[in-house]
């Protein structure tokens, strides 16, 4: 992320180029003249607050960074950033809890912008047996846990496929958000050694060519196969909510569904 000392025009140009948009593209989307946008980017014109909000909306800039741009232009931040414990976010907190609990007996979790675990249902913990304690200590980072050789990497049956999927997703998030923490995380996990005995294999399951499952070897249920889905809050106006992602895992086959239901009975 660019520092707050950067000129507002430099911020906008950086995000426009990151989105691979020309000045003409952005001007048309924001319904302003290309000349005026050029003047804003070079500092020859001072944009209004409303114009900045329109431009940052068209560029799909994260709310956290929209605040940075507003401050750089001399305006107060518009989007509040509150802890999930804040009373103002009580309804959202309840919604997250209902979604996670309601997804049982299948695993689901909520993560923040940098993939740190915010909350999870009981089934997530049930699948993390045998993991090194230091990887489970707060803040628990889900990406690090997934790819670390002392984490889930050694028990992921299709590790090479899953690792490639995770790295590609993380790379795209770095491009979209310009988040330095995510960039550092990507550099870190790319350097992890491949666990011994993990050789690339040709997918043979029914999902080959359609989706990449997460296949986890467990002591209780054998190899469990999951499909994952991502949920975000629609049109959030709070920075914290805009950066919250819910990851839900569904059984990819009948055997996995049966094994998870049996594991859930043991938790009751």
Query: Tell me, what is the CATH class of the largest domain?
Result: Alpha Beta
Radius of gyration: 22 Å
Number of strands: 5
Please describe the biggest sheet, giving its number of strands, its sense, and whether it closes into a barrel. 5 strands, antiparallel
Describe the SSE topology.
Blueprint: H1 8-18, H2 23-30, H3 34-42, H4 49-58, H5 63-72, H6 90-102, E1 108-111, E2 117-120, H7 122-126, H8 133-136, H9 142-147, H10 159-177, H11 180-190, E3 214-218, E4 222-232, H12 239-242, E5 245-251, H13 254-267
Antiparallel strand pairs: 1-2, 1-5, 3-4, 4-5
What keyword list fits this structure?
268 residues, alpha+beta, 434 Repressor (Amino-terminal Domain), Beta-Lactamase, 2 domains, five-stranded antiparallel β-sheet, 13 helices, 5 strands
Detailed description of the structure:
The chain is α+β, with helices and mostly antiparallel strands and 268 residues long. The protein has 2 domains: 8-72, 434 Repressor (Amino-terminal Domain); 87-267, Beta-Lactamase (2-Layer Sandwich), CATH 3.30.450. It is 46% helix and 12% strand. It is built from 13 helices and 5 strands. The protein has helices at 8-18, 23-30, 34-42, 49-58, 63-72, 90-102, 122-126, 133-136, 142-147, 159-177, 180-190, 239-242, 254-267; strands spanning 108-111, 117-120, 214-218, 222-232, 245-251. The chain has a 5-stranded antiparallel sheet. Strand 1 (108-111) and strand 2 (117-120) form a beta hairpin. Helix 1 (8-18) packs across helix 3. The chain is elongated and about 65 Å long. The mean pLDDT is 92.
């Amino acid at each position: 992320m660019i520092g707050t000392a950067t000129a507002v025009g430099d911020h906008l140009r950086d995000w426009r180029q990151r989105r691979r948009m020309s000045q003409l593209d952005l001007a048309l989307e924001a319904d302003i003249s290309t000349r005026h946008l050029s003047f804003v980017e070079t500092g020859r014109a001072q944009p209004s607050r409303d114009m900045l909000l329109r431009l940052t909306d068209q560029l799909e800039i994260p709310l956290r960074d929209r605040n940075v741009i507003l401050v750089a232009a001399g305006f107060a931040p518009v989007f509040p950033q509150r802890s999930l414990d804040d009373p103002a976010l009580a309804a959202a907190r309840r919604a997250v809890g209902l979604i996670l609990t309601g997804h049982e007996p299948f695993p689901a979790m909520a993560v923040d912008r940098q993939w740190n675990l915010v909350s999870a249902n009981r089934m997530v913990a049930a699948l993390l047996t045998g993991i090194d304690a230091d990887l489970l200590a707060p803040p628990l980072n889900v990406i690090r846990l997934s790819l670390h050789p002392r984490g889930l990497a050694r028990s992921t049956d299709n590790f090479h496929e899953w690792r490639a999927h995770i790295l590609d997703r993380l790379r795209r998030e770095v491009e979209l958000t310009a988040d330095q923490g995510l960039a550092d995380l990507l550099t870190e996990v790319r350097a992890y050694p491949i666990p011994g005995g993990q050789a690339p294999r040709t997918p043979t399951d029914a999902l080959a060519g359609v989706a990449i499952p997460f296949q986890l070897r467990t002591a209780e249920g054998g190899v469990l196969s999951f499909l994952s889905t991502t949920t975000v809050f629609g049109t959030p106006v709070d920075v914290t909510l805009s950066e919250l992602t819910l990851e839900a895992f569904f059984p990819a086959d009948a055997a996995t569904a049966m094994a998870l239901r049996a594991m859930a009975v043991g938790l009751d």
